[in-house]
Each structure stands twice: as structure tokens, then as C-alpha cells.
Amino acid sequence: MKDVWVVKVSGNSLEDKGFLAHLAEVLKAIHSEHPLALVHGGGKEIADLHRRLGVEYEFVEGLRVTSADGIRLVEMVLSGLVNTRLVRLLVNHGIAAHGVSGVDMGLIRVEPKRVGGRPLGFVGEIRQVQPGPLEWMLKSGVLPVVSPVSLGLDGESYNVNADEAAQAIAVALLAQTLVFLTDVPGIMDSNGEVMRRVEAAQAEKLVAEGVITDGMIPKARSAVSAVESGVSSVLITDLEGLQNGEGTWFVPSR
Description:
Layout: E1 5-9, H1 17-31, E2 36-40, H2 43-53, E3 59-60, E4 63-64, H3 68-92, E5 97-102, E6 108-115, E7 118-129, H4 132-139, E8 143-152, E9 157-158, H5 162-172, E10 177-181, E11 197-199, H6 203-208, H7 216-228, E12 233-237, H8 239-244, E13 248-251
Parallel strand pairs: 1-2, 1-10, 2-8, 5-8, 6-8, 10-12, 11-13
Antiparallel strand pairs: 3-4, 6-7, 8-9, 12-13
């Protein structure tokens, strides 16, 4: 779909009223020029609720193992608290926003994910995205706010990494731009300066050199996968960078 932007947001900032108000203004400006979909996570609030209710969990290679009790908490936080909060915020700023999850209308279908052969419980590996419902909303001027809780091919709900959900949605919509909002202005080079442009073929070299590290590695790899699958460009940036069109732009290799 022409000119579509997909923005992914998550992190501690989703509880910060000042950040949320600023986010709404920036998204309103983008939405005035482009069809726009927002995908969100909410890992901090999920972890907080696990602790409050005494539901144990563990991580395997950065992925939260999600038990039967855990997926209930994930659904409450992502498809309930966070999704409703973001929709309320956007509607209060004059944006026609509508909350959905990957379960609704079978938007995102998944199978259980494994890491090194180990099952992760109710954690999903995306197998298909049905873009029709999102395209209908976008063409109607509606901004879909998407919780990454998704529908298993077995009929169960699954927890899906929000970066992966945003990437898959952007590819399904043939988006012009995919944005990963972070708390840093982009990928920093060895001099501490933001790298303004990265070609897809450069990314693994930058990982090997230690330029791209830690939590930025999966975002960079998702960015590469997106541009190699038809998304025109991917921006990794913070909120100020999004407002100014600055950050690290991933583009297809020449």
C-alpha cells in the first residue's frame, strides 16, 4: 500500500505521560501526511505484573519464556492496558485510532517458537500476516494500534516480539517506512556519532566489529530483513529524531 508508515514503540516510556503526549503530537504530524500503523510492546509492564502476582518466568536468548499463566498476563497488559492507553491518547489528540491485536480477524498467525530446539511455551513465530483488515483501516483514515499478541495456527494466543510483529506488518503492507523507536538517537559509530545511513549488506559487518551491540542487534537484523523484503527504508531513532527525520536509515544494498 502506497506511502504507508509503520512505527513500533515500547519500553519504559509507555508509562511516561510527557513522552506519550510528545509521541501523540509527532504521530499526528506523520498521520496527516501518510497512512500510519502503530505497533507496541510493553515488556516492562509485563515483568512488573509477573512480579506483583508472583508468576515466575525466565529468558532464553533474550526471549521471555511464556507459560499458560504468563500468556494471560501478556494479554492483559498488551491487548488491554497498553493498547487501550495508546488508543485513548491518540483519540484525545484528534486521531481516529482503533486498537487491534494479532488475534483480531486472524491478523497475525503463528506457530510455537523454539530456540536451539527448546520450546518457549506460548511464544509465537510469525507464519503469515493478513494485511486486508489493516489496509481497510488505513484507507479509511484510521490509525490501527496493534498489540503483538497473535493467533496460533492451533487456535491459542501467543506472545510475539513487537519488533518482529512490526517488521512482518510493514512487509505485508509493502510499507514505505518502518520506524523502530528507541531511547537512543540511532546506531553510533566508533566516534560516538550517529550513523545516518546503513546499507543492508553492511549490517553483519557492523555487528562483527562491535559497532552494533546488545539490544540493537535484533533491531538492525529486523531492519535488514524488512528492506530486503520490499520495505523502502527503515529508521532506528528516538522520538526527537523521528520528529526531525533523523537517526540511522537502513536502505537496500546497491
